[in-house]
């Protein structure tokens, strides 16, 4: 098999692609609507005009020109641009640090940047647009592609002026169709983009309200958006009165209802890569009268295995043998009725296409043999663990079968019997699907779905494997319908006054499927749409701008609750362990108590990023707990979920030691 860029990504699940999708936008999502939101009504009185949507009892009020919901890559870009336009800016952010999922992005797309010119790289914009339009069957927004490309070179210069660090390398990102990828440094946007953009925003007077997600828009009686509510960690609401609001909340990968509306079928079992992206920006836009674009959604999506969040890219670039074997092109796929339903080579040219055939079925089960498993492992450029460890992991998974969905046998009949008994599938249908497929492999011709002959590999090498492969979602693209000014529009294309959207919340360059043709395109759209939203918001506000932020009431910071107290008495000497779910997977913490004190803490995980999650634990959290002799310490900005999981695990270890 020829190793193209897209097959490479499908096999290896490299970190860059994980990051390119992880990041994309800010994170200002809120807990599920608690029912307090009220629909605006006709005939509102003058008293009602200030807030004819949701009404909250706010402990503090901020007044500004524009409020940006989310401080990821798009939100930070919007914040800096708005401030440069002379606007007073408030940013609401869910987490304790800026960057959102965007901290993992590795670079940015651009055409005709100075770096490309200096490198002698010439790209015809029409080629990029025609490639994307053709792949989407002309469903992509060609004018937005044109806007992005025309602004992209200037965007790189603007980012450099804002202090963003580029290595100077521009290439095709592991074999993409165009040399458009402008690389950040080794630690990606976490070091090279987010800190610089945050510092620039603050220098320009932008006020960040951290740990304070946006919850509801405020509208006057004619539907004009006049502000937004945020909620602090202690439950108190703040009211931000603004002349315009930009939604950049990072999509809805964690919202089952929206995923189902977007085409996901097995929503009760969808595996996640990132957390906190609940679609609240989409919800707020729709509640304000904006049109939904959810049915045209796409994103970074993949088949995975139970217990491996996010699929193979959930391993941050280290290919996972248990995952890649199941969606290898030579495997056999059947649905919940035991019937084969597509050519399993769907993702050879684009790993984002792998999961698409499963959307019209409730379940996808993969059947393969030992040769397919070994070939899939050998095809990984960056395996998570070596071959011997992978074999041991496979054996352990089959023996323990913690999810009751992974089986092995030395004959296909025995395999089918095990799986059908456990999963309540019809044995006759399953074994007929297997036999028919093997007959087609012998003939070298897929008479049903036309899978290329090179992938028609007969199941003929025991042991054989049968596993359930749930759908997974790392990040979604789209959801909020916008025009070229990034104004949120209603079903008739009329703007909702004062409301804008940026980043993946409204990305409509990749309808229904992400193409991965144009390296860095998603992050470029985040940055460009953020800038566009603020530029046109400034135009909308005009001379009515205040140029500053004012506040009144309880403007104290929203901080994590660290009120947990150590159990009374002396901790018993010993070794104690607890496991909690962190950002990407389980984090196991071992606490050693000696002489009644915590003397050492060791953490183990496989999926946390070394430069964010692991660094937060090893460089900050562990030393602080050892020094203070309590896990009641602050979270690390940018690693909130990791911090919370770590603290909870240490707390439970201490409770074990005191019991």
Automatic annotation (TrEMBL):
<feature type="compositionally biased region" description="Polar residues">
    <location>
        <begin position="545"/>
        <end position="561"/>
    </location>
</feature>
<dbReference type="Pfam" id="PF04205">
    <property type="entry name" value="FMN_bind"/>
</dbReference>
<dbReference type="InterPro" id="IPR027477">
    <property type="entry name" value="Succ_DH/fumarate_Rdtase_cat_sf"/>
</dbReference>
<dbReference type="InterPro" id="IPR036188">
    <property type="entry name" value="FAD/NAD-bd_sf"/>
</dbReference>
<dbReference type="Pfam" id="PF00890">
    <property type="entry name" value="FAD_binding_2"/>
</dbReference>
<keyword id="KW-0560">Oxidoreductase</keyword>
<dbReference type="InterPro" id="IPR003953">
    <property type="entry name" value="FAD-dep_OxRdtase_2_FAD-bd"/>
</dbReference>
<protein>
    <recommendedName>
        <fullName>Urocanate reductase</fullName>
        <ecNumber>1.3.99.33</ecNumber>
    </recommendedName>
</protein>
<dbReference type="InterPro" id="IPR006311">
    <property type="entry name" value="TAT_signal"/>
</dbReference>
<keyword id="KW-0732">Signal</keyword>
<dbReference type="InterPro" id="IPR050315">
    <property type="entry name" value="FAD-oxidoreductase_2"/>
</dbReference>
<keyword id="KW-0274">FAD</keyword>
<feature type="signal peptide">
    <location>
        <begin position="1"/>
        <end position="25"/>
    </location>
</feature>
<feature type="domain" description="FMN-binding">
    <location>
        <begin position="582"/>
        <end position="657"/>
    </location>
</feature>
<keyword id="KW-0285">Flavoprotein</keyword>
<feature type="region of interest" description="Disordered">
    <location>
        <begin position="545"/>
        <end position="571"/>
    </location>
</feature>
<dbReference type="InterPro" id="IPR007329">
    <property type="entry name" value="FMN-bd"/>
</dbReference>
<comment type="similarity">
    <text>Belongs to the FAD-dependent oxidoreductase 2 family. FRD/SDH subfamily.</text>
</comment>
């Amino acid at each position: 098999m020829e190793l193209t860029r897209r097959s490479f990504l499908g096999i290896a699940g490299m970190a860059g692609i994980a990051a390119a999708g992880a990041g994309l936008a800010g994170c200002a999502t809120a807990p599920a609507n608690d029912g307090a939101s009220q629909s605006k009504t006709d005939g509102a009185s003058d008293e009602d005009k200030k807030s004819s949507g949701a009404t909250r009892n706010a402990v503090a009020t901020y007044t500004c020109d524009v409020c940006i919901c989310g401080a990821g890559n798009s939100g930070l870009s919007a914040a800096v641009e708005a401030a440069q336009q002379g606007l007073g800016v408030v940013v609401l952010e869910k987490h304790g640090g800026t960057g959102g999922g965007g901290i993992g992005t590795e670079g940015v797309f651009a055409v005709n940047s100075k770096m490309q010119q200096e490198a002698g790289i010439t790209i015809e914009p029409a080629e990029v647009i025609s490639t994307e339009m053709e792949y989407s069957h002309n469903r992509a927004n060609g004018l937005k592609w044109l806007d992005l490309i025309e602004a992209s070179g200037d965007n790189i210069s603007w980012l450099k002026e804002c202090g963003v660090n580029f290595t100077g390398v521009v290439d095709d990102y592991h074999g993409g169709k165009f040399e458009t990828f402008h690389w950040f440094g080794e630690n990606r946007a976490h070091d090279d983009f987010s800190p610089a953009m945050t510092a620039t925003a603050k220098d320009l007077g932008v006020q960040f309200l951290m740990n304070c997600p946006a919850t509801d828009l405020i509208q006057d009686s004619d539907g004009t958006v006049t502000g937004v509510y945020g909620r602090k960690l202690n439950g108190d609401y703040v009211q931000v009165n603004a002349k315009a609001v930009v939604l950049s909340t990072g999509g809805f990968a964690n919202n089952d209802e929206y995923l189902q509306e977007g085409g996901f079928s097995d929503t009760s079992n969808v595996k996640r890569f990132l957390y906190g992206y609940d679609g609240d920006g989409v919800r707020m836009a729709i509640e304000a009268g904006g049109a939904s674009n959810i049915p045209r959604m796409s994103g970074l999506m993949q088949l995975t295995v139970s217990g491996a969040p996010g699929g193979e890219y959930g391993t941050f670039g280290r290919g996972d043998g248990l995952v890649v074997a199941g969606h290898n092109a030579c495997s056999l796929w059947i649905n919940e009725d035991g019937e084969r339903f597509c050519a399993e080579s769907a993702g050879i040219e684009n790993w984002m296409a792998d999961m698409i055939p499963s959307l019209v079925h409730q379940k996808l089960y993969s059947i393969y043999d030992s040769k397919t498993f070994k070939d899939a492992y050998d095809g990984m450029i960056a395996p998570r663990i070596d071959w011997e460890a992978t074999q041991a992991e496979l054996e352990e998974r089959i023996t323990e079968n913690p999810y009751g969905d992974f089986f092995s046998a030395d004959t296909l009949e025995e395999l089918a019997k095990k799986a059908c008994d456990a999963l309540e599938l019809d044995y006759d249908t399953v074994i007929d699907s297997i036999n028919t497929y093997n007959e087609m492999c012998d003939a070298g011709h897929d008479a049903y779905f036309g899978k290329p002959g090179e992938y028609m590999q007969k199941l003929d090498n025991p042991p054989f494997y049968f596993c359930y492969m749930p759908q997974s979602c790392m990040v979604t693209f789209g959801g909020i319908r916008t025009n070229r000014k990034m104004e949120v529009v209603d079903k008739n294309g009329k703007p909702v006054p004062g409301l804008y959207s940026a980043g993946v919340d409204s990305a409509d360059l990749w309808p229904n499927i992400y193409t991965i043709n144009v390296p860095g395109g998603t992050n470029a759209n985040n940055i460009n749409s953020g800038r566009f939203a603020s530029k046109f918001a400034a135009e909308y506000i005009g001379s009515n701008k205040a140029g500053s932020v004012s506040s009144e009431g309880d403007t104290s910071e929203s901080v994590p609750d660290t009120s947990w107290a150590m159990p009374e008495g002396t901790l018993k000497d010993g070794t104690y362990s607890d496991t909690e779910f962190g950002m990407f997977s389980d984090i196991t913490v071992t606490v050693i108590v000696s002489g009644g004190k915590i003397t050492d803490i060791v953490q183990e995980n496989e999926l946390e990023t070394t430069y964010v999650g692991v660094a937060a634990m090893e460089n900050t959290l562990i030393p602080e707990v050892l020094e203070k002799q309590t896990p009641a310490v602050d979270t690390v900005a940018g690693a909130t979920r990791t911090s919370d999981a770590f603290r909870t695990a240490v707390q439970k270890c201490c409770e074990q030691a005191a019991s």
